[in-house]
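Structure ticket #2291
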Amino acid sequence: MSGRTRSLVPAGVATLVAFAILVGLGVWQLKRLAWKDSLIAAVEARSTGQPVDAPSPLRGRALPADWSELAEGLAAPGDIHIVKRQWGAFHGTELDLQLRRREISTVVIGGVATNFGVESTARQAWERGYSVVIAEDACATFTTAMHDFALQWIFPRISRVTNGANIGFVAGRE
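Resolution: structure written out below.
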């Protein structure tokens, strides 16, 4: 990845996690575990069954064994884990149900990749009526152009975009 590379993400995420824990909100971890062992097979199967103009750059490449794990220091006992199986975190998961049960109306989103998973999740949250905040420094993707396009043209229409250090958390109901 270039631009905002994966190695830059933990610093922004760590800031958000620290604030959330400080006010007692805990951390919600959205993990894409379902594709861990079969991502390449799934991409290749879809490429042959669903024509696309630009097949995944992952085609034919193996992913590291721990690719879906959070960076060290970001996971804690009591965190809520939601397993996602698509780019967006709402489709096919109980994320919406769990947020509504806790009367949470604002979501702060960061992750990899800015213009795929983060953008899909932000769109889905906005469509469901959530206030959306994008932590720009907690996002990364394959190229600077892809990252910047989402930040300049998509996110401002469905969210507030800022750095993690500018986000304040207020403890509410759990």
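Closing remark: The first strand starts at residue 28 and ends at 31.
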